[in-house]
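Changelog excerpt

This revision adds worked examples to the README so contributors can see how folded entries look when concatenated. The first example is reproduced verbatim below.
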Amino acid sequence: MNQSARRPLIAGTAALFLIRLLLSLIRTGPVLVADEIGYLTNARVIAGGVAGQLEQAPFYRGGYSLLLAPLVGLGGSPTFTYHLILVLNALLAASVFPLLYLLLTRFAGVRAELALWAALGGAAYPALTVLSQVAMSENLLFPLVCLWLIAFGGLLSERAEGVGDLPWAAGLGAATGALWAVHNRMIVAVFLALLGLVWLAARRRLRPAALVLGVAILAAAFYGVHLLDAYLIDHNYAGSAPDELSQRKDELLQLGGLRTALANLVGQSWYLLVATFGLAAAAVADFGRRRLPVLGVLLALTALLLLISAAAFPERTRPDMLIYGRYAEVAAPALIAFGLAALPALVRTWRRPPWALPAFAALTAAVVLIRATASDPDAANRWNVSALPFVTVQLGPAILIGAALVALAGAWLLLRASARDERALGLAALALFLPVVAYGAWNPVRSSQRAVYPPGWESPQQVVENAGSPRVAYDLDHYDTIGLYAVQWFLPGARVVLFEGKREAPPSPLLISSGGWDEEHPSAPAEALWSDNGRDQSLWRLRGPCPDAGC
């Protein structure tokens, strides 16, 4: 590492960590359900604790939970443990800065001064900050993608006669296996890693021993992930996980589903351009200019992630699904870093690309037209488009046009700054990303926090522990996503079981139902022990047995 870069790298990493840590102080517990509860209860089970109730939820892979398990195993209160997890998230997000710097200087030929500012711009990407505030797998995917690219870059730079291909192949196998363990959409990284290993071996740039080592480590990781998934399914999912892939595949094979997925691909590609202020396009242009191998791998990963993300929503129910960014933007920090590093040279050699503005205008027009003719009844989810440089509301055509104009203005600012020096370019990138971070921190982080945990909200943990029951029944007739999922996190010593209050007797003397349980079930006298401030969910204790269904 360049000695002159060591101090700013340490200072920048510390600053990024502290900013995200300070933001986490306002948090109480999970707000994205059932996603967060999936990862959190997976971690609790891995640590030997009580299983979660996720029979009706999608399956959440255990790689991120494996990292959380030691924190959960410390046995602190749910709120304290959640804050420890947010500290870990802040560390993971801050690590992206030095990882991007290493990637640019070692494998992209970027000089240290420019690499510092480019890496800082990538590490300041708004989604990194917003998602660090929730227990979501993207927190681990962001740095893992950087490590994966570094391992790929090292492998691509080695020759068959060298002795360095063994550790690089091992590193690529391990990083790829880790990505697969965290989320199944990273199957695209598995495909690219295997393709790269075989291609390098066929070109005699990789020794057979290195090929075997890389594939063996990846195969071992696959087997380990299979065992971990099976363990979690048995404990958290009552022995079976929903097969979302088959359902989506059936929908995609229909004309309407395929048409929707193609429209999503247009919208989500547009989002990545807008959220990066055109720097993703600069990275593409730089690959056309230099044919840098590791950048080609990054672009291939991004393209495949976009395809998977678009195919994930063959039927749109929310406006944000059209421009859904969360699945593909784990590659965004690296795209931004490469784009910023390339911008000065691109401006010098290609000042006015004649197709750029018309192409972006046509893409924006297509996205606006799709959105204007769509019917998406549910509310937009800001968490999935957290780097959109504009307000969200219902993501109507005017919002999309406004975001496109802001992105154009930001791209112009970056072009002007790149004509000066790397410091001006880096500061311009920060000036663009920080307001988006500020809005993202206010909405959705703060608004979601207040919606789930309004003033006066209290945890039910102590009440349940004092009642001494190992189980808490949940009444599905009064289902509430927060009541079923988020509250589970605050019951570390009690197993939640489901029942239908109008047809079944509660399987536990403690139950969560509406505030009107006693009126709906007069033959089952109960006393209210706790109420969720902000929603119609209360914890009841039966005063006597309830032997009959619907008693």
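The second example, added in the same revision:
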Amino acid sequence: MKLMKKKPLALIVSASLLTGGMSISAMAQTSDQTSTDSHEQMERIVVTASPLDRTAIESTQPIYVLSGDYLRQVQAATLGETLRGLPGVQSTYYSPTSSSPVIRGLDGPRVRILQNGLDVGDVSRGGPDHAVSTESSTAEQIEVLRGPATLLYGSGASGGIVNVVDNRIPRQRVDGVEGQVSAGVASAANERSMSAGLRQGTGNFVLSLDGFKRQADDYRVPEFITPDGDRSTLIENSFTDDIGGTIGASFVGDRGFFGASYGRIERDYGIPGHSHDHGDDDHGHDHGHDDHDDHDDDGGIFANMVQDRYQILGQLNNPLNGLERINLNFGYTELQHEEIEDGFVESGFGVDQTELRITARHQEIAGWRGAFGVQLKREDYVSYGVEAFTPDTRTDLAGVFWLTERTIGDITYELGARAEYVELDTDGLASLEYAPVSASAGVNYRLSDELNMTANLAYSERAPQSGELFSNGAHFATRTFDIGGIYEIHEEHEHDDHGHDHGDEYHLAFADYALGKEKSANLDLGMHYDGVRWHFDANLFYNRIDDFIYARNTGILSSQLDSDMGLGGHDDHGHDHDHSHDDSGFLVYQYTQADAELYGYEVSAHYLLNDEWRFGAFSDYTRAKLRSGGNIPRIPAQRTGLDVTYSQQSWDAKLSYTQYWAQNDVAENEAPTDSFGILSAYLNFYPQTAGQQDIAFYLKAENLTNRLGYVHNSFIRDYAPMPGMNIGAGVRISF
């Protein structure tokens, strides 16, 4: 794999941004969302992740949809930071440069990240320092399904899904030209960003072009003391430099559409807290690469991520008797992620992924309407270099699913089932097979025009991922030494010839059996009230998981682990590594299984005092523990938030405060985290313009009091606290 440069893509994106800007004055558009009450508007938006065309309020599963001006207001450089303000959703927070969603305390292999219904095809679930390869600035909407979504999207969605929906493959005809352009700046990291999208229709054909560019320096924080005893107000090596663009086209006819797109994302971003502790010796690198632009001068390790993504979407209405429509969704993704220090590739990861989903929605059968389908997926994963502690793995998945519903009076009943087959074939190690099954049943009871109640019971099984099974080596980004579930650790006492005990030593060996499937039973109860002045949502959940897979802090130092079975540094890609990186002080984490339970709530409410004033509040909480005693590691803290909004015809202002409570329910060898609060203010201005252009200006001031805050579930919590005061401004123009 070769490191790919940015110049060709930069020209493409610059052209798309310029095209969008030059077309503004001549085009027209219609606004899709007002600023005064975005919550109710979002609930009426159809959730594309469901083949039954439900809205969020019609589903028995809790769903949140971000779109329009609200999405632009909370938009951040990473998907996790964009979503972390939603009830029940927080982020892994490996600094703002790499932040993935955490849903009800679950993340990584249990939260499926999708783009237009297909897996994003990156390595973000292999480590918190790996960024998600999606972009919210060019998204039409982002759908978040809290709780198991395994029926449609497989065992990797046992905790929920996040579906980033864009219009790169247009699904509807466009008369003439439409699009949008936006730009923004923010002070905490000197961030500058710009994005644009353009769609042009000619008869049945629609062409789509979009692009984005973002740059940010190291971000500033309130003064704190690192674990090394240093005082700092800047998180070194936390910059980001991103660019991306997509071109797509569709044929839209009377009975459906068919289209394709090609997109490319390139990211350079720093990895704070990532240390190899080299000492004073030389490394003897001979990587065969030339320079890697100016980031080498920073002295830290940075990631270069390049992704090419091809996608085909199609829909045919009334194809056969008994079928209302058939949807085709096919994607192929190539991703290269390399971590670079001093001009040399220290570690590299690659993913080639092919995925096909075919879904058919059938007409009513005995009063039941539903959809069934098939999903096929192949993923080839390779790694090389210092952190190649997981072997090259091919994962094949095949699944079939069925989802149906029926409304009788004021009650809608939902049923669903899925069966899948997963095979993991590794380079030089085991080949493992799993057959997870999932099922769900739910009801949505409409008590009145304002009030409805929901209940959903889901059973899901999850096959372990390759990292959970086969890891064996130092992960410098998390400062851990990771051991997979196919191994077992034996403790031995070392004695000399005189019988003196020289301490414990631990040996690694293959286990008699690998990790088994996770088996989860999840109950979700919800209430939704939408009155004239009051809007209220509440969800209670209980998730009982047998054989829960988690990384347990063994308390053993890697220097005590005697193993010649390690994978670190192996390289079949033509790289010559002669490293002397020191991982002797890393704690050993081993993936293991134990029965667990997670329960908690999400509550949000809004009160409309009059046409000008609105008050809001929310709270969420997840309790996660092992049924045999003890707590699950790195569970986000409970939060409570309050906000007040004042609105006029052409502007609105909002003041919000979020309290992160102390997290004292910690796992073995895990330290608690203190509470802190974040005060923020927002001002949006919607000027009246000639014609039908829609222009919005915004100002934001986040963490106004410059409060120091640590994210409990972050692997680098003590090295990278949350940003300090951040002043931002931006503009969005639609036409």
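Reviewer comment on example two: Helices lie at 7-22, 38-43, 68-74, 79-83, 150-153, 466-470. The chain is about 5% helix and 55% strand.
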